[in-house]
């Protein structure tokens, strides 16, 4: 009998808390579990978690009594105390680990608390995702027992006053269970390396000695690694050295812009598995083959709320208005953009994570990431989302048969009106004017508001094509290489200032 046709015993299914169909019940159960665990913390006492638990409608009571937090607010009011070593602030005990997360637009690092309860919940979700491979057809089972190359942050964490901090990928690798160690590559020694270039060189050096079945990481950095291996050993494809490579587990950004360039490095088709693993928790994962979305984790360690991403709830800067509309899982609709609020087993309460999502299949609870609350363009009401941009790039690159792995867009004044300026990464021969016209036309088809404004206040669209290495060089200069770092699709604020300096040769 094939491995993935085996039915799980009830005891195993119960222990893994595999989901049932009642999403509202699942989420209320998770909320009550979180509230019970944290009711004696300072946060739980302040916001009367016991009273919420005794309510007939704990979900609604929770929303009424606990405010919405962004990072700055929750850090200023609560989390700063945990960094000072105080226990029982937002979650029982002392916080010993923090994931450093600067996102793609912030200049200073954010300290996101990581607890053993959160890591335990993340591990449960990882196991569920692995078990979900039984839903895939004709998968090469032999590859599952091969090496897993996970390219992330350094496991050599920074030591603070009673805590350690670093990339979540580094913390996760450092805390990986013993049974996973034989499969884990590049191994503990290389994983500790903080210098991304040195780490990459070590991986390339050891590549012939590994039999890799899975690669896991952000598409841009995995692609760079594979290109270096192919170049070093003068290979035709990565399968010349890793014939059993059959899976790529990716997340954090849309894979579509990278797919054409990525597949040039392959000798055979592989299975792509999308995940949504943020510093704050394991939020969703693809659990069936060829799915357009990822299954939202509803039955484990995260309570979700959803704020409609519109001008009733967000201002022009992407900041929440006072008293926004917030929905629970049973109240959402398919096809609408929502900003995600999460409460987790690390003392993250009603936290605006900054991502926007859309339900593609409410019954299956499947979502896609559509962008960031701060990463959209609406200078004059064009309401252009990252999802719109990704779709336009994907369609146009296919039409022109070119690879566009990176891009970013800037909104700026143009005379008395406004313009968008695209910067596109490609090493292919591209007519920039043709590309500009095609992207503009495609966005008019995708987004009605954009089409209207292109005939009004959005007077012009500019586009420059740059080598892919220029994008990577900028990320290196900003100290945002490897791990979970992604190039921002929309540039604003300090990142935009630095980008303009970089293009002039002034950023060193």
UniProtKB/TrEMBL annotation:
**Which InterPro entries does the UniProt record give?**
GH3 (IPR004993), GH3_C (IPR055378), GH3_M (IPR055377)
Q: What positions does the domain GH3 middle occupy?
A: 297-361
List the molecular function annotations (GO) for this entry.
Answer: acid-amino acid ligase activity
Q: Which domain of life is it from?
A: Bacteria
Q: Where is the GH3 C-terminal domain?
A: 388-492
Q: Tell me which GO cellular component terms the UniProt record holds.
A: cytoplasm
Q: What is this protein called?
A: GH3 auxin-responsive promoter
Organism in which the protein naturally occurs: Limnovirga soli
């Amino acid at each position: 009998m094939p491995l993935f046709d085996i039915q799980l015993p009830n005891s195993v299914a119960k222990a893994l808390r595999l989901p049932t169909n009642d999403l509202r019940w699942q989420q209320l159960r998770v909320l009550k579990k979180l509230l019970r665990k944290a009711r004696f913390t300072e946060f739980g006492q302040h916001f009367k978690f016991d009273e919420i638990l005794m309510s007939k409608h704990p979900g609604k009571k929770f929303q009424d009594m606990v405010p919405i937090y962004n990072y700055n607010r929750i850090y200023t009011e609560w989390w700063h105390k945990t960094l000072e070593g105080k226990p029982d602030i937002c979650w029982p005990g002392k916080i010993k680990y923090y994931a450093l997360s600067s996102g793609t637009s912030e200049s200073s690092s954010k300290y996101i608390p990581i607890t053993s309860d959160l890591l335990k919940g993340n591990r449960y979700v990882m196991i569920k995702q692995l078990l979900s491979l039984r839903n895939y057809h004709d998968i090469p089972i032999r590859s599952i027992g091969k090496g897993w190359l996970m390219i992330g942050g350094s496991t050599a964490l920074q030591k603070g006053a009673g805590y350690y901090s670093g990339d979540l990928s580094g913390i996760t690798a450092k805390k990986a269970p013993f049974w996973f160690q034989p499969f884990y590559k590049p191994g503990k020694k290389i994983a500790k390396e903080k210098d991304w270039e040195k780490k990459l060189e070590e991986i390339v050096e050891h590549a012939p000695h590994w039999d890799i079945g899975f690669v896991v990481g952000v598409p841009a950095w995995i692609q760079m690694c594979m290109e270096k291996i192919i170049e070093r050993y003068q290979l035709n494809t990565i399968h010349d050295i890793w014939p059993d490579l059959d899976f790529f587990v990716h997340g954090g950004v849309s894979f579509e812009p990278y797919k054409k360039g990525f597949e040039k490095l392959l000798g055979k088709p592989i299975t792509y598995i999308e995940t949504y693993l943020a510093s704050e928790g394991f939020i969703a994962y693809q659990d069936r083959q060829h799915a357009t979305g990822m299954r939202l984790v509803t039955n484990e360690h995260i309570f979700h709320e959803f704020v409609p991403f519109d001008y009733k709830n967000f201002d022009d800067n992407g900041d929440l208005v006072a008293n926004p509309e917030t929905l629970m899982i049973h109240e959402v609709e398919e096809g609408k953009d929502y900003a995600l609020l999460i409460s987790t087993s690390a003392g993250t309460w009603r936290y605006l994570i900054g991502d926007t999502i859309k339900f593609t299949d409410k019954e299956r609870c499947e979502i896609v990431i559509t962008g960031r609350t701060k990463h959209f363009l609406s200078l004059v009401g064009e309401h252009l989302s990252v999802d719109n941009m990704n779709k336009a790039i994907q369609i146009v690159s296919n039409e022109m048969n070119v690879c566009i792995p990176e891009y970013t867009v800037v909104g700026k004044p143009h005379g008395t009106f406004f313009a968008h300026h695209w910067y596109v990464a490609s090493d292919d021969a591209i007519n920039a004017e043709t590309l500009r016209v095609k992207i503009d036309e495609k966005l008019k088809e995708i987004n009605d508001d954009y089409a209207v404004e292109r005939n009004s206040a959005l007077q012009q669209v500019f586009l420059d094509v740059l080598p892919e290495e220029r994008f990577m060089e900028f990320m290196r200069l900003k100290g945002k290489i490897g791990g979970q770092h992604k190039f921002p699709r929309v540039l604003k604020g300090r990142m935009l200032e630095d980008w303009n300096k970089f293009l002039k040769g002034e950023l060193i």
